[in-house]
Input
Amino acid sequence: MNGEISLNYQVKEVALKDSFAFWQSFEDEERVLFYHPFQQQLIMGARRLKTFGPGESYRGYPFVFSTRTFFPTLKDPKWSGLGNETIAFQYYLVEEKAGQKLYYAHETADISAVPPKEFASHRHDYEILADDYQEWQELFQCAKQKVLAGKVQKVVISREIKIQCNTMVSVESVLKNLMEKNPHSFVFAYCKEGKTFLGATPEIVARKEKGQIMSYALAGTRARTADEEDEQGKTALLNDPKNRHEHQIVLDYIAKVMNTYSDEVLIGETTTLQLRNLYHLKTPLAAKAKENSSLTAWVARLHPTPALGGYPVAEALAIIARWEKHERGLYAAPLGIMNEEGDGIFVAGIRSALIEGRTVYAYTGCGIVASSECAEEYAETAHKAKTILESL
Output
């Protein structure tokens, strides 16, 4: 995502002791953070400059941030105002191996607005407010009945875990912990009107680079435990029929979508992705688009994959909308960063939480197929929730 520097922005090399000094300097303003682990690139944006309409060019803007909600509409007030926008910010801090650069729109920008503050880590005391296992059992049984009845092959159901902290949540501290503890994940945050949606996701929805579209089937999960060697755990996951079946549903769907809009689709080898608490099955896919369609168009075609909603998609989404008691909002939805050429990457907002004041709503889910067991799937969601809990 290294497009030409736009005339709308000036660029200046900076040397902040801590990149979060930039983040803290815009404390009460709209902000975004996106860390790309493959490129080891951290982008922070602050203060909304422009909102783009459908199909509008990004020319003149080095980076734009874009979000969709899981379902098209929102009802829960805590998600109000979040999602379904593409935005350019007035300031960007970009940190790479080569150093830090500050992009700023307008010549009158006061660069001293980014002072080198010292950052202090914070450990939160918290409690999980309710035991939701009975609610989970009801949701699980409904989903599995639909699978066994042949209505769907798979449904991805989720939990909303409400956590109360004794103090205001330090978003900076949570983000630093997410980056340190999850070095192979995409770390993201979007702050607006006193609310922050953040997480550390391993899942790429779509990536576009010079006409090539890439995606990844990421489904099938095994807990990573201290009493098992990593190679043993990975091999067990690769050879597990239930997880291979769940993975194949996702892989087949993404390949089908890609083949609809491309003359050539390459499917890579299925391997394991090792994270802090889990292993996942992962298969890369690449396609060359028939026409010059945008990255956002590809995201709309692919979202939600069966890794996030289920299959067949429409039937699975109807079950989720009918039976999940919480609203997903930005959870499991696409969010991403693009350059002025429209190239960039969208990831799925999983291993994530919505933070407001002292309250954290953590989200976690898993795919239900015919061979799924209720207690095992609940335990899997608990392992996934560790990403957020450990960051507190």
Notes: Residues 1-5 have pLDDT under 50 and may be disordered. The two ends are 31 Å apart (CA to CA). Residues 241-261 form the longest helix (21 residues). Residues 202 and 251 are 16 Å apart (CA to CA).
